[in-house]
Amino acid sequence: MGALDEGHFNGELENGVKLINLEVCDEEEVEATAAIEGAVKVLLQGLGEDVNREGLKKTPLRVAKALREGTKGYRQKAKDIVQSALFPEAGLDSGVGYAGGTGGLVIVRDIDLFSYCESCLLPFQVKCHVGYIPSGQRVVGLSKLSRVAEVFARRLQEPRRLAEEICSALDSGIKPAGVAVVLQCWHIQFPEADRNCFSQIHHPSEMNMQGWSKVSVRFGLGLFANEGSEAWGDFLALLKFRGVNVEKNHTKYPTSHHWCPFRSLDAPSCNGHASTHIPLNGRTPSRTGPSQPAMVAAVAMILNSLGEDPSRKEFVSTPRHFVQWLTKFRRPNMDMKLNGFDFDQFKPRLQKNMNDVDNSILDQGELQSELNIPFWSLCEHHLLPFHGVIHIGYFQAKGAEPVERSRLQSIAHFHGWKLQVQERLSRQIMETVAMIFGEDVMVVVEASHTCMVSRGIEKVGTSTATIATMGRFSTDPTAKAMFLQTVSDCTASGG
Amino acid sequence: MGALDEGHFNGELENGVKLINLEVCDEEEVEATAAIEGAVKVLLQGLGEDVNREGLKKTPLRVAKALREGTKGYRQKAKDIVQSALFPEAGLDSGVGYAGGTGGLVIVRDIDLFSYCESCLLPFQVKCHVGYIPSGQRVVGLSKLSRVAEVFARRLQEPRRLAEEICSALDSGIKPAGVAVVLQCWHIQFPEADRNCFSQIHHPSEMNMQGWSKVSVRFGLGLFANEGSEAWGDFLALLKFRGVNVEKNHTKYPTSHHWCPFRSLDAPSCNGHASTHIPLNGRTPSRTGPSQPAMVAAVAMILNSLGEDPSRKEFVSTPRHFVQWLTKFRRPNMDMKLNGFDFDQFKPRLQKNMNDVDNSILDQGELQSELNIPFWSLCEHHLLPFHGVIHIGYFQAKGAEPVERSRLQSIAHFHGWKLQVQERLSRQIMETVAMIFGEDVMVVVEASHTCMVSRGIEKVGTSTATIATMGRFSTDPTAKAMFLQTVSDCTASGG
User: Domain GTP cyclohydrolase I, which positions (chains A, B) (predicted)?
Assistant: First the structure.
């Protein structure tokens, strides 16, 4: 067990903090980060954005650091992690080694991870379950199973390969009688800006990832080589104790990575950049920024700076997919027509001082609410998606028809499909609703931010909420409280 | 907004990876780590352990690094974190600044954290909710709310002070119209080795932390200074959307830290080390190791090495509490009597080769199972508790009385109350049950390990499971499967 003595201050193995070889890392880090920064600037310009505007100034650096951090598994060695925590475990000193070997199955369940999809460069979420059967009196520190899984998750991946790599690393590190990995993976769908697609999105509190592309994969070696083996039976039984039913969810899918929804967008006769440019319903692409091929080349350079070979067959379409995704959030013209609304007709109203409105009329109105309107947007600080639901409350004169939900949904789309921050989104939706339908508006936006999970923060399960109020909702706490109660009632009942 | 340009490669602010000032940190780190290592060796020896045995060799280093990592908040500046991500957010360019200021309430919910209790040095779990109302067009990157909370969580804390410090840091960093923090905190109870106490422990899959000491605290500044304010009404309403009902759970507790269960152990007339030594039911303390005062002094030195002043009033009893806790896990004499069992009487059986047993008799037996037997233990690799439930299955000759649950509980206690690893615990319980009641035994241990959460791994919600089998359960897959199904049925129905 000489391995136990090595690396006294090799902090990376224990706490994830690097304490050695920092001079070397620094130089490589600076170079790779700078290269990615440059590429991200090209992408932002390709979206028609001003890279010098306040919210975007540091975005290229943020994206670069997040990507490097999110793929640091390329620069970590799983073997070191395992070997620093192998313990001889002989059983009772009295020698009743009756059970044979070191004992039975050992598993760690529900390890939350994220990884980056090699087909589209977007992060995907992973629930990882690892098990092994010790042999030769070797057991490994339980947290190392999680650490090793993370090394391979922090690379550009595809679920089956991820499972295989974790398994193989543990197999060669621990030399167990058998080792197995079960992964449940969730990938963001490729949302279209039409209503039908959004029926998949649910209130973030549900956290059931409905509407996400999901696969379960499993892989095993040694006693787990055969999927019908007794060892697998034990493993799956222990997962069932926690409500994880892999047999039922287990999806057989080909080794090619068709689980990524972006793959299905590939035109059948796709070659080169043929299907790169998919303009969003009616939006005209920017004429001033870099061309699509330049954006695709920039993403290829990012792959390179992460330590991958962009010409590897898995990556051939990746830059194009990522650009397709980004292009969805191209800065729209503000005077465009939005699903039948002509914003120009509201411009005079936009200039009006809304404080002039006679509030006595509004007091006669009735509280209307439209809840759980789904939306997607792109965080302008990290170029990562955030999504969730919007609740809109407004007062309407008696007898008037309530606003159609589809119109509110259109407004949410209009402000969502661009580089955004949630605070601004809430305000913009509120102000647009006010322009069109009246001055007493309240908007609550509830969202999950991919950037809270996938860049070193890793706070799985957090959600954000923002409130924006105008008119009566600003001045009358009772009106605001009434609307919040309406949302609460609806949410509590599973709405 | 000059702050936006500072610290181009100050990686700590964005990704938690330090890239600067490493030479300085290194020296301090090495010194502090070495000091803690020395202190942990004293503690281990005080528990009667051999610090050179295989499983403990690296424990002092592991504990030292975990504690330094877990208290790195002392060496971080919240102000830098906030100021690196302040964004001017003026609202719509068209100037419809109707809502006043930058908009309404912004909150981040369900941030999972852990912290260290200043009264006993054990980690406690935190669910943190942060909100603020922007002012002067200043909004902060959403993930920074989580980052700042973490800076103060990674210190020795007490819930109310933690909430106050997070709040104050955000207040001075963002200068908002108001800022508020709600914390839900769970502290491990001080378990006694009698059965009654253990009725609090539940299957780890419930994750409802029943049986833990829980407090909810809230603190606010600016518009949140008054607990009955409109701003608080909005915040609490948004928490309700996610099922967090703070009003109901809100516990008023005095500013002194009586929430820590270890405080209640202080003798009323406690002075100095009067109540330090609490031997565990019948266990005789080691006579060879360091004295209790030496152990208490060692813990005081650890506090010092974490950057705290052990003479601060909050820390006066902390070393004693931690030693009290540790002493619970003092290595017992193997020949002690265990709640009425005399192990000596089973020694001859222990020596017997169990393979000689006539299995034809056992085939007549009936599967018995005793499920969800609670246990506590101490991870010998990290000196942190792990706990959960044990399921025991065995075959018993027809007509014989089933084993009393209390006896199995005693065996779980006997093997749990010491420095352990889960794999060994499973095997030792199995072998003891076999010695006493028969050779066909299967044990499943399900546990939550504090060390998986509180030392940089931070995988909240993971759980481990281990299987150990003997006799018929080793040779007959049907028997094993039958028992696993029994556990599954019981677990699924909420047992």
Answer: 36-188, 297-487
Q: Are B274 and B321 in contact (CB under 8 A)?
A: no
Q: Give first-to-last CA distance, chain A, whole Å.
A: 57
Tokens of B467: 């299987």
CA distances from B476 to A222, B359, B438 (A): 20, 12, 16
Residue of A nearest to B91 (CA): A424
> Cβ of B488 and A241 within 8 Å?
yes
Q: Phi and psi at residue A233, in whole multiples of 5°?
A: -60, -45
What tens digit of pLDDT does each residue of A145-189 get? 999 999 999 999 999 999 999 999 999 999 999 999 999 998 887
Q: Which domains does chain A have, with CATH numbers?
A: 18-44+266-331 (no CATH), 71-262 (3.30.1130.10), 337-492 (3.30.1130.10)
Record: contact B241-A459, CB cut-off 8 A: no
User: What amino acid occupies position A219?
Assistant: F
**B104/A143 CB distance under 8 A:** no
Do A298 and A43 touch, CB atoms closer than 8 A?
Answer: yes
Tokens 């647009």 correspond to what residue? A432
Does residue A241 sit at the B interface (CB-CB below 8 Å)? yes
Alpha-carbon distance A333 to nearest alpha carbon in chain B (angstroms)? 14
Q: Give the closest of A104, A142, A421 to B467, CB-based.
A: A104
Burial of A398 (0-12, 13-18, 19+ CB in 10 A): exposed
Inspect the interface and report whether the beta carbons of B108 and A462 lie closer than 8 Å.
Answer: yes
Residue B278 is classified by DSSP as -
User: In the numeric block, which tokens belong to residue B229?
Assistant: 């304010």
CB-based contacts of A354, cutoff 8 Å, min separation 6: A434, A439, A470, A471, B98
What one-letter code names the amino acid at B485? Q
| Residue among B17, B93, B355, B455 with most chain A CBs within 10 A, to mutate | B17
Q: Is B105 on the interface with A (CB under 8 A)?
A: yes
Give the nearest chain A residue to B463 (CA atoms): A109
DSSP code string of A319-378: HHHHHHHHHTTPPPPTTSEETTEEGGGGHHHHHS-GGGS-HHHHTT-EEEEEEEEEEEEE
* Mean pLDDT over the full length of chain B: 77
Min Cα–Cα distance to chain B from A322, Å: 23
Look at residues B78, B108, B46, B84 and name the one whose alpha carbon lies nearest to residue B293.
B46
Of B9, B103, B147, the CB nearest to A427: B103
Q: Is the pLDDT of residue A400 over 90?
A: no
B446 confidence band (pLDDT: 50, 70, 90) = very high
Contact yes or no for B16 and A456 at CB 8 A: yes
- Largest Cα separation within chain B, whole Å, is 90
B56 against B83, higher pLDDT: B56
CB contact under 8 A, A9 and B1: no
- CB-CB neighbours of A477 under 10 Å: 13
Which residues numbered 396-425 in B keep a CB inside 8 Å of some CB on A? 421-424
Name the DSSP class of B461: T
β-pair partners for A179: A132, A221
- At residue A374, what are phi and psi to the nearest 5 degrees? -75, 150
Q: pLDDT class for A401, splitting at 50, 70, 90?
A: confident
Integer Cα distance of B296 and B42 in angstroms: 10
Contact between A386 and A451 (Cβ < 8 Å):
yes
CB spacing of B111 vs A350 below 8 angstroms: no
DSSP per-residue codes, B364-395: T-EEEEEEEEEEEEEETTTTEEEEEEEEEEEE
* Rg of chain B in Å (alpha carbons): 26
* List of residues 6+ apart from A178 with CB closer than 8 A: A132, A133, A220, A221, A222, A223, A224, A225, A231
